[in-house]
Amino acid sequence: MATFVERIVGAAKISTGTYEEVEADESATAQAVAVVVLSSVAGGIGLGEGVGGLIAGVVGGVVGWLVWSYLTYWIGTKWLAEPGTRASASELLRAIGFATAPGLLRVIGIVPGIRDPVFLVTAIWSLVAVVVAVRQALDFSSTLRAVGVCALGWLIQAVVFVLIVRLLGAGA
């Protein structure tokens, strides 16, 4: 079994083996939470919007992860399931949580002039990681199906994230 850091690196490298490992390891849920929180903190620091922005980013990141994971579970097991789809909500939570690992690099967005490119690259990187995580966790044979499931879930969670950030007054 890999260490926490090895799992973060494997998730960032988009290693299917890492996603299979965290999906199967029920004790990795706390680690997945930690990756989401650390990624959210890194994003908050990278945005440089002070303590309010940091808190809003962490709350929004955790809530967004929970919403997206449960939506992905529901969409992937009820609407777009394949005959071999077998998964639990906690398996998706762990896999998607680790897929936020590229967001740890958002902390370097604090460097003047590179915030937007860093956030764009890490967002795309994380989306690719989530597609792979979902494909592995839902036992899909089709990456396109995983893309569809992720796109639907992401759109809904993005709306929730924006609402939370606005309710907490960040970026105002």
Question: What do you see in this structure?
Answer:
The chain is mainly alpha-helical and 172 residues long. The chain has one domain (4-167). Helices cover 73% and strands 0% of the residues. Helix 2 (16-24) packs across helix 5 (89-98) and helix 3 (29-47) packs across helix 4. The protein is globular and about 50 Å long. The model has no long low-confidence stretch (mean pLDDT 92).
Q: How many helical stretches?
A: 7
Overall structural domain count? 1
Helix content: over 70%
- In the predicted model, the low-confidence regions spanning at least 5 consecutive residues are none
Q: Give the distance, in angstroms, between the N- and C-terminal Cα atoms.
A: 44 Å
Total strands:
0
Output the helix-strand order. Answer: HHHHHHH
Q: What's the rounded overall pLDDT mean?
A: 92
Radius of gyration, in Å, reads 15 Å
> Helix- and strand-based class?
mainly alpha
Q: Note the overall shape.
A: globular
Assembly state (oligomeric): single chain
| Beta fraction | under 5%
How is the main sheet built? none
Structure summarized in a few sentences:
The chain has 172 residues and is mainly α. The protein has one domain (4-167). It is built from seven helices and no strands.
What labels would you give this structure?
172 residues; mainly alpha
Compile the SSE list and pairings.
Layout: H1 4-12, H2 16-24, H3 29-47, H4 50-79, H5 89-98, H6 115-137, H7 143-167
Helix pairs in contact: 2-5, 2-6, 3-4, 3-5, 4-5, 4-7, 5-6, 6-7
